[in-house]
Amino acid sequence: MSENMEEQEPSVQSPASEAQETETHAPRVARSASSQPLIGAEQVRAHEGAVKSVHGKSRRNVPRARRMSLSLTRIDAWSAAKVSFMLSIAGGIIQIVAAALLWMMLNVVGVFDQVTQIVSSTGLDAGGFDLANVLSLSTVLSAVTILSIFEVILITVLATISTLLYNVVSTLVGGIHVTLGDD
């Protein structure tokens, strides 16, 4: 008789217990203000598979590295000019410092004095030749600085012209195609 009573009595549940019951059976899906799901069922399954693979239950749905194919079709000439100018300035400073260090090292080792002695021993010394006076530090640094300024201008102009030529050619060919990977 108790079995009949259970069948006849309507089950009364609170709204909270109904919500708990539906949460255990159906996956939770984020919804927008219009109550439309923000992500699809496929994305929910993919997420669940990724979570399972992290816990070691399933390794089928491990996300693979993404690859993206891009094309470099245009380079801004002003941007290329600024970058090449700054890099050539850095190169010029490196040249000046390297020339000064090299001159100081040659002077400490005594190369200038030895070359002067060799020239005077051959009899080519017509008027008191001294290589250290001809190639003084100030003379060498002045020459290297002038050369560096010329190189800065030349490199900047050539890089800008090369950029403009690349832009023209890339409109005809389509640019450089690059595949980027997310490893």
UniProtKB/TrEMBL annotation:
It holds the Pfam family DUF3566. Residues 10-19 have a biased composition (Polar residues). The chain crosses the membrane at residues 83-106, 140-166. Residues 66-182 form the DUF3566 domain. The keyword Transmembrane helix applies. Keywords: Membrane, Transmembrane, Transmembrane helix. It comes from the Bacteria. InterPro entries: DUF3566_TM. Residues 1-37 are annotated as: Disordered. This is Membrane protein. It comes from Bifidobacterium moukalabense DSM 27321.
